[in-house]
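Retro notes, item 3 of 5
We never archived the inputs for the zinc ion complex last cycle. Fixing that now. Sequence and ligand:
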Amino acid sequence: MWPFKKKPKIEYLEAAELNFTQVDFTERFGDHLSLSEDEWIETIPMNRTFPDGKGGNLPPIDAIGDEIYRIASRLSEIRESFRVPTDGVYCPVCHIANIDYAHLRNPCPKCGPSTPCLRLELATLHTIQSLRSFKQHKNSVQQRGK
Ligand SMILES: [Zn+2]
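Structure as it came back at the time:
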């Protein structure tokens, strides 16, 4: 018998400990099911969801295009080493995503050849869940401090 732990291990992650493989996310769970290959949807920079704009390995909130792209490209390489059926592509500079994996490392339709599309997980349910538990934890800390 192994010991069972009732509390999930990742319930209270500190922002600095979070590790992402993409810098943007799509808002709705199931985007990969409802979109067509011609549709580009807006993505949200993940660092904007943190109170001070600092989350794990994400670029700082005041980072500009090139810097964001460099970080996002490195993270995308990690995702590119394995294949997940719900993955699509995105541009971390103009914040758009598409389900067609054929766009990977091909020019972003808005930014052009200088900004090839990177890999994005469209079904970011677990990401959003960890962000929520982070926020809840943060709120409870703030309330206790009053
Ligand atoms: Zn773009």
